[in-house]
């Protein structure tokens, strides 16, 4: 394939078959530096895929590119949108870079764009909206880093080449010059993408010294894009792992969340553990690598937790349960479910006990784990609702094992539902995911038993509206019946009626009133 050719699968107009192009527009990419005369077939396919992926937004990109060119400025699509085009992933936001400084960008686009925002102006970024498309245009950068922190001293650059070499990974250091559609790949990003490897434009040690958060991004991209981390990158991550503590908890949290929300986060999490990064950002995870004794008296808790996470992800979305009419669903990707799956057993290292006779116990590890989860997620600056939800799921994840063969009374089922509250669907998935036994018969039996519990919950909910369970009398009615003012005693009476409701189901107002008066008389006597 000669430089600029699009490879097989293209019509005479240069556009791939099946892609509609505006009339008389011919789409050609000029490749810089030129590709070999006969590039590997996978590279040719990537180029073809990029053309197809960018086709819907190319008229817009060429239009704004022509606007800048007419004013004597450069403009290029860069980073994630270019990488994703080669991977066949849709472009969401369009990141561009230019030699024009922010004020000039605003001047050039003020009448062209439908809206502007300049919250990133200090870092050289101007945001635009044109129709339904969002663009961010950033002035070329040649930042200088104070390596005692990760805050760069922002310096504007003068060339695309300077801008690309400062980027985190070669697969994110590819650009498309506009409006001429010149594909620029100075650091072998396309070759790395074809080879499924993650490398840095500069040396990895230098790159991570400039910005330690890039080590977290390496784990995310390894999971998200299915890339193998290069030897130099892995070594630099291991060497510089302690420097991640220079990064704010909020930034670490955001990268961890993005990793967990990928389709297959396991390999990214492994990379964090294997390089030592997890010891500084999520130390409870490597702590799960308990020494497995020679008699294998307990399973590998670390591997078990990763498997539970995999299984929880597989259960996200609509599903059917025997005996339950309506489909149950936790829409994915769900951060609360995934955090709970990963952390559900973090109380085990602190509670492990070797029992007489060769057994191993982890008594109350769910309670310890709930406290540890809340502490770690708070330290990572997760919001209060997420912290509360994850720690509650960790606390409840063993509750089902008291169900046995279905011996729970309706009262126990009501309490299970009430304790889970709005997290019931999440608890269903977490509990099912926690079965990692290789014994097929045991796994099938556990699944059938949980099917039975879910069916019982469904029947009780239909009969009693368990999702909104409350006593038949509210606080005002309790005050009136007992002739007492609002206060602590009304709260005690309410909790009595709630326990009665959970134990015995729907009683009706008359019976509830009689039982309340009897309780009050016995209490007062």
Automatic annotation (TrEMBL):
Sections of the chain in a coiled coil: 443-470
Highest taxon of the lineage: Bacteria
Gene Ontology biological process terms in this record: tRNA processing
Region annotated Disordered, chain positions: 1-22
HD/PDEase domain sequence ranges: 297-465
Compositionally biased spans, kind Gly residues: 1-12
Keywords in alphabetical order: Coiled coil, Magnesium, Metal-binding, Nucleotide-binding, Nucleotidyltransferase, Transferase, tRNA processing
GO molecular function per UniProt: metal ion binding; nucleotide binding; nucleotidyltransferase activity; tRNA binding
InterPro entries in alphabetical order: Bact_CCA-adding_enz_type3_sf, HD/PDEase_dom, HD_domain, HDIG_dom, NT_sf, PolA_pol_head_dom, PolyA_RNA-bd, tRNA_adenylyltransferase
Gene3D superfamilies per UniProt: Beta Polymerase, domain 2, cca-adding enzyme, domain 2
Protein name in the entry: Poly(A) polymerase
Family annotation (NCBIfam families): HDIG, tRNA_CCA_actino
Cofactor(s) for this UniProt protein: Mg(2+)
């Amino acid at each position: 394939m000669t430089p600029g050719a699009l490879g097989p699968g293209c019509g005479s107009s240069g556009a791939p078959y099946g892609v509609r192009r505006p009339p008389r527009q011919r789409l050609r990419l000029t490749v810089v530096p030129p590709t070999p005369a006969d590039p590997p077939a996978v590279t040719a396919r990537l180029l073809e895929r990029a053309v197809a992926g960018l086709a819907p937004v190319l008229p817009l990109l060429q239009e704004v590119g022509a606007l800048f060119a007419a004013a004597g400025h450069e403009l290029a699509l860069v980073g994630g949108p270019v990488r994703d085009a080669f991977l066949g992933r849709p472009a969401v936001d369009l990141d561009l870079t230019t030699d024009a400084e922010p004020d000039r960008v605003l001047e050039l686009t003020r009448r062209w764009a439908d809206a502007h925002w300049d919250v990133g102006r200090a870092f050289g970024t101007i945001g635009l909206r044109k129709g339904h498309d969002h663009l961010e245009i950033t002035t070329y950068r040649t930042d200088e880093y104070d390596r005692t922190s990760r805050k760069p001293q922002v310096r504007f650059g003068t060339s695309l080449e300077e801008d690309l070499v400062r980027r985190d990974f070669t697969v994110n250091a590819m650009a498309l010059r506009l409006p001429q559609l010149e594909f620029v790949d100075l650091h072998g990003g396309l070759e790395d993408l074809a080879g499924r490897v993650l490398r840095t434009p500069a040396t990895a040690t230098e790159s991570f010294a400039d910005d330690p958060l890039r080590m977290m991004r390496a784990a995310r991209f390894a999971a998200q894009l299915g890339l193998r981390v290069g030897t130099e990158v892995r070594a630099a991550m291991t060497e510089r792992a302690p420097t991640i503590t220079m990064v704010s908890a909020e930034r670490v949290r955001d990268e961890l969340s993005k990793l967990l929300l990928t389709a297959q986060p396991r390999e990214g999490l492994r990379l964090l553990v294997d390089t030592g990064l997890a010891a500084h950002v999520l130390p409870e995870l490597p702590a799960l690598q308990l020494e497995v004794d020679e008699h294998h008296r307990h399973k590998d808790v670390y591997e078990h937790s990763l498997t539970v996470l995999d299984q929880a992800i597989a259960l996200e979305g609509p599903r059917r349960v025997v005996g339950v009419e309506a489909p149950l669903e936790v829409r994915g990707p769900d951060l609360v479910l995934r955090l709970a799956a990963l952390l559900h057993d973090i109380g085990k290292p602190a509670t492990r006990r070797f029992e007489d006779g060769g057994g191993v116990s982890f008594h109350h590890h769910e309670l310890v784990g709930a406290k540890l989860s809340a502490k770690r997620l708070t330290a990572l600056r997760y919001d209060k609702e997420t912290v509360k939800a994850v720690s509650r799921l960790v606390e409840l994840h063993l509750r089902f094992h008291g169900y046995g063969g279905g011996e729970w009374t309706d009262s126990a089922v009501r309490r299970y539902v009430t304790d889970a509250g709005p997290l019931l669907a999440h608890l269903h998935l977490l509990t099912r995911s926690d079965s990692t036994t290789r014994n097929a018969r045991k796994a099938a039996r556990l699944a059938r038993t949980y099917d039975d519990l879910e069916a019982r919950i469904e029947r009780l909910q239909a009969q009693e509206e368990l999702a909104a369970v409350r006593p038949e009398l509210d606080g005002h009615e309790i005050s009136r019946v007992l002739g007492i003012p609002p206060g602590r005693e009304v709260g005690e009476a309410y909790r009595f009626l709630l326990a009665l409701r959970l134990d015995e189901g729907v009683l009706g107002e008359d019976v509830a009133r009689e039982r309340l008066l009897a309780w009050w008389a016995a209490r007062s006597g």
